[in-house]
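Let us work through a complete example step by step.
Step 1: write down the sequence.
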Amino acid sequence: MNTPKPKTLGELKASGWKSKSVKQELHDNLLRVLAAHEDLFPGIIGYEHTVIPEVCLAIIAKHDMLFLGEKGQAKSRLMRGLVRLLDPEIPFVAGSELHDDPLRPISAMSKRLIAAEGDATPIGWWPREQRYAERLAPGTKFADVIGEIDPSKLASGTSMSTEDALHFGLIPRMNRGIFAMNEVPELDELVQVGLFNILEERDVQIRGYPIRFDLDVFILFSANPATFNRSGKVIPQLKDRIGSLIRTHYPREREMGIAIMEQEAGLDLDGPFPVKVPLFMKEICEQVTIEARKSPFVDSQSGVSARFSISNYRTMVAGARRRAAVLGESHAVPRISDLAHIASSSLGKLELDLMSSHQMTEQQVIESVQAAAIKKVFDEYCDQHGFEEISAIFGKGVAVEVGDMLPSIAYAEKLKRVPPAWEKAFEINPSTDAAMRASCVEFVLAGLWAHEKISRSTKHGRVSFQT
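Step 2: predict the structure and record it as tokens.
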């Protein structure tokens, strides 16, 4: 039988509850999770031996943290994931804006209430899901995160020099909780000074009034290295007070990137017109992102988010499923021609290097990294034995037209004119399923094109391979 939660200060004292700072709370719960060998960050892939150990050390050291990394490196997810290390709920003085600790109140309102009511002071309970708040730096003002004098309170007769005249911002309201500031280099210098003061003194000073709070808040930051390391973007005093800097990164192996891509895409590949995605198509989809990160035409300091792979994977699967529905095929297998549609999910996600000596449009960059990805993956599946024979057949004027809306059963007929290419497809996958065979055939033709053995032209969604 569950013991009822204390509803008054007297009942809370009788229960034996002890005050604990939020950093001590995180510290103790982390050690419990580690000792039990529980998954600390469910759903975070690829950080088991790099980022997560550093986060653990920072929490045990009771440091505020800065997550430094390019876009799409799970910085926000890591910060939000720390909520599970908080206690399920904690008591606070009911009605307190600052969620005062009943045994150690810091606001004037709570102190007055406890002085008047004593052990009869009502107690509320604050669930951990509500003890986290975050803010995006651009446009953030001092009043938003720290606070401001409230004109309505002044109008009602409250003295300007008292705490009661203040309207508190997000950080004071997160007293005994976690506050995260995203993209900290974009903060106004005045706000940075306010944050520095909180990190240094754990207090709030608004418009110079000597109103001090012993705030208990765990502060997290995120930033992109390109802006964080730029002189003048973050005041040195603020950098110096951040306890630990955690460097995030993109997946170190392609297999890890594919696992992230599939998990985050969250697609149901079963149901009406099920989709079977060959491994080589998943590899190409992730390799496109890898090639974009390496491209001299893409701003390397900005990075290429994992969302690039996720969006393209969804589009590729959507193209295959649409084909199955339109053509009445029992199932779908994504093909190279389906990648023609990923421009719609890629455009706007790449920041081009405007200082590059060779300027390309975003569409051209996408086509370039696609070609590089196809070549890279193709070389892992097929050796070049037989390329010359296939190229010679195309050299006699043979042309093979394929496309994302060509029925799967049509590929066997089209490839009768190039038997070695049909046979080469079996090196990729020995399946005799027509949809899988169509995908493998397009992969072979695209691989030959990437090796400049044959040429390719596109018109109205149809792709023609010839010499």
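Step 3: interpret the result. The radius of gyration is 30 Å.
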